[in-house]
Amino acid sequence: MKDITYSKWQLWSLVILRVAIGWHLLYEGIVKLLNPNWSSLGYLMDSKGLFEGLFHAMAGNAVVLNVMDFINVWGLILIGAGLIVGLFTRVAAISGIILLAFYYLSHPAIIGVSYAMPTEGSYLWVNKNLIELLTLWVVILFPTWKIIGMDRFLFNKK
């Protein structure tokens, strides 16, 4: 594979995008970590759509719920931090895609479905979780961490 080159605007725009998503995920994880009453129970019980049975079952099992809470908090924190500093960025982006896919499947943007938690707007098929998921795909396709990020130092073969 030949060396990837970007203009300065392209490079910095992609890095800013990566860091912004990282910040959003990191902050969401920290807020959950610092709130002793936070649990994914309400979110899972509010699930609708094709996979609602799966998410309700997860919420109905205390052990699984505790694992989901742990994965949510620490997954968000580690994924966000990895994206911000460009450390294990491909793993962070793929993990973020998986986590956001679960969020999207739990609360799909479909007609006639309302959720207990208010949303910022009205959605049909596309919501912020799907947009962020697709943006992480762009982060994977344009590996800026090889130029700006800790991965540059860890995995630079030159």
Which H/E pattern describes the elements?
Answer: HHHHHHH
Domain module count: 1
- Coarse morphology: globular
- The total beta strand count reads 0
Helical proportion, percent range: 55-70%
The whole-number mean of residue pLDDT values reads 89
Strand content bin: under 5%
Count of DSSP H/I helices: 7
Task: Provide a descriptive summary of the structure in words.
The protein is an all-alpha fold. The longest helix has 27 residues, at 8-34. It is built from seven helices and no strands. The protein has one domain.
Could you list some keywords that capture this structure?
single chain, 158 residues, mainly alpha, 65% helix, 0% strand
Task: Characterize this entry briefly.
The chain has 158 residues and is an all-alpha fold. The chain is built from 7 helices and no strands.
Helix and strand arrangement:
Layout (H helix, E strand, L loop, with lengths): L7 H27 L6 H5 L6 H9 L1 H24 L3 H18 L21 H14 L9 H5 L3
